[in-house]
Every structure is written in structure tokens, then in C-alpha cells.
Amino acid sequence: MPFDTGAVANYVLELGDRYEKPISPMKLQKVLYFAHGWHLALTDKPLLDEQVEAWQWGPVIPSIYHEFKWFGPNPIAEARYCTIEMKKDGSTGFQLREPKLDDCSGDVATAKAVIDRVWQVYCDYSAVQLSNMTHQPGTPWYDVWEAMGPAKRKSQDIPDDKIKNYFKAQAQAQPKRG
């Protein structure tokens, strides 16, 4: 079962805070994409409960884009993904809820292990470097974007199977450790 995308985003932001590595909205998008891809490749299950879309500037999770776009190229400072819900105590009104990965059902330990490893591998890359990685010929974003053609380019889902197969091929291409 996929995890709440906002909870996964909040976990990545927590890692950024813990290791004092600022995360811009674009970097968050790319780290989430890589975590989703590696989770698919390693577990055959999606990490995110939302579809990744091909946008002009690479793979994007729309809800995360809209939540943090106000930061522009700057680090996301002291903010988390939140949802607005009806109060559950019987009173009228609304409350903000910050989704947490630990509150999700499913194999949270494996999800965290994958995200932690992705963070270790990709955290020192800039948002632009990560974006460039996703734009290489043969990547899922590239294939979907190019297939649309210039006249039809707009956001379009990147199928999870395409992402999974790409990251499985990347895993197989890695040199084996002895």
C-alpha cells in the first residue's frame, strides 16, 4: 500500500533538518521521485499515493509542488506539508494536520530505509543536478515528455511500471560489491 505523499515529503524535510542540508521545492520533488523509483524497484510497490507527472522541468508530484511553490528556489524553512480537516472532537471548524510517516499503515521501516538510503546518495546534489539526472535520454520523464511531442506538451502521468523498470535496470547496472 502506498504511503501518504505528504507524510513522505515531511520525512524528507526532517532529514534535511537533521543533517542541516537545506531543501528547496525542486530538490524535494527530485528526492521524492528518486525515493519513489527506488522503492518501486526494490519492493515492487509504490512509495507515494500520488502519481508522478511529467512537467516541463521534470518529474513532479502536483500536491507537493502547490504546497511549497511559494518558496521558489529558496530552502523550505520551518514548513511542513499539512492538510485541512474537519475537527474530530465534535466541534465545528477545521484543523491543520501534519501527516507523519510513522502514522501510516504499511511497512514503514522499509519505506524509511529506502528514503534514508536515497537521502544519503542524493542529498549533496543540487536541485539542478538532480533535475538534470531526470532529464537524461532513456529516463521515464524523458520518454514520456518526448512521446508527447512539442505541440501536445502538458502534464502527463509517468506510469509507475516505467519508473520501476528504469530503476530496476539502474540497480542491475550497478557494480556488485564483493
Secondary-structure element order, N to C: HHEEHEEHHHEH
Poorly predicted runs? none
Given the structure, what is the number of helices? 7
Spatial arrangement of strands, main beta sheet: 2-1-5
Q: Tell me which oligomeric state these chains represent.
A: single chain
Strand content: 5-15%
Main beta sheet, described?
A: 3 strands, antiparallel
Rg result: 17 Å
Q: Structural class per helix/strand content?
A: mainly alpha
The count of strands amounts to: 5
Could you give the distance between the termini?
34 Å
**What percentage of residues falls in helices of 4 or more residues?**
40-55%
Overall pLDDT confidence:
89
Indicate the overall shape.
globular
Textual characterization of the structure:
This protein has 178 residues and is mainly α. Helices cover 48% and strands 9% of the residues. The chain has seven helices and five strands; from the N terminus they run H-H-E-E-H-E-E-H-H-H-E-H. It has helices spanning 5-18, 25-43, 62-68, 108-122, 127-134, 140-148, 160-173; strands at 53-55, 58-60, 83-86, 94-97, 156-157. The strands form two sheets. A three-stranded antiparallel β-sheet has the order 2-1-5. Strands 3-4 form a two-stranded antiparallel sheet. The chain starts with a helix and ends in a 5-residue tail after the last helix. The model has no long low-confidence stretch (mean pLDDT 89).
